[in-house]
Amino acid sequence: MSDEIKPMTFDRFRELIAAYGASPEKWPDQERALAEALIATSPEAEEIIRDAAALDTALDSLPTPEISSELREGVLEIADGLKPTAANENRNVIIAIAKWYPRSNGTWLRAAAAAVVFGVLCGVGVSQVFVPPNTVIIAQPAVPQIIDPVAEQEVQNELTSFSPTEELSAALVDTGLQNGGVSEESTEEDSEIPII
Amino acid sequence: MAENISDPVDGNVTDRRIDIAASVKHALGALPERQQTAIILVHYEGYSGVETAEFLDISVEAVESLLARARRSLRQTLKPQAIELLGER
């Protein structure tokens, strides 16, 4: 991820609008003022904005709740809870798994099982952290899968024999959850979980 | 007695907007999944490019590329509807 602030050349302005559309609130914070200044002085920039606004208007005709595909129901509702807040410690856990998953050869089941282990290590409930398969689409949009009770039971079964791979162990270390990221206020429940 | 007759003009506009929304939904659904995810996260959910990059584990530049390709496809598909909507303003 780059924090570099690009100069607001006309080419960069085109890129910006092509990606984010005509609404300044969607533009990167650090480029908004520069882009607005360019619009104020360039009729050509104004034309680009008008063109992008047409598509924005068409997109806005579809209210967000109507995008009720598996993608929205699964991935995005969870992602909506992942806004970075001090109270949301799950966010880093989910993101860590999302980053780990596409590099693995495992199934979503392993990712879900890992999520449960992460969740317990973090001191939160399984239901709060359990990652349905759609969540993995955040990292690797593949074939959406629908979680069902059978699949959930499979996760529970998997947990009984869950043995983390070296890759998962490395992911735990990366997130700091293995060393230092775990609350010292361990409970008796923690001791029942295989500590990696 | 009060009449309860719907305005045929407003009714047509509403019907047309529903049609356009259906077209948008169809066009979104036809996008490759990562483009679809990027558009929904940024345009509809209001996440920034940086946040979206983090979710997708890609660079901000890659997110912008996904968004640009998605919008280009949507624009081609939805151009007639977009022009019509602008005309109603």
What's the topology here?
The complex is a heterodimer of chains A (196) and B (89).
Chain A: H1 10-20, H2 29-41, H3 43-60, H4 70-80, H5 90-100, H6 108-122, H7 126-129, H8 149-160, H9 166-175, H10 188-191
Chain B: H1 8-30, H2 33-44, H3 49-56, H4 60-88
Helix pairs in contact in B: 1-4, 2-4, 3-4
Description:
The complex is a heterodimer of chains A (196) and B (89). Chain A is an all-alpha fold. Chain A folds into two domains: 52 residues, no CATH class; 122 residues, no CATH class. Chain A is built from ten helices and no strands. The longest helix of chain A is centred in the first third of the chain and has 18 residues. Chain A starts with 9 loop residues before the first helix and ends in a 5-residue tail after the last helix. The relative contact order of chain A is 0.09. Chain B is mostly helical and 89 residues long. Chain B has a domain of 58 residues: Arc Repressor Mutant, subunit A, CATH 1.10.10. Helices cover 81% and strands 0% of the residues of chain B. Chain B contains four helices and no strands. In chain B, α1 runs antiparallel to α4, α2 packs across α4 and α3 packs across α4. Chain B is elongated and about 45 Å long. Chain B starts with 7 loop residues before the first helix and ends with a helix. The N terminus of chain B is likely disordered. Chains A and B meet through α1, α3, α4 and α5 of A and α1, α2, α3 and α4 of B.
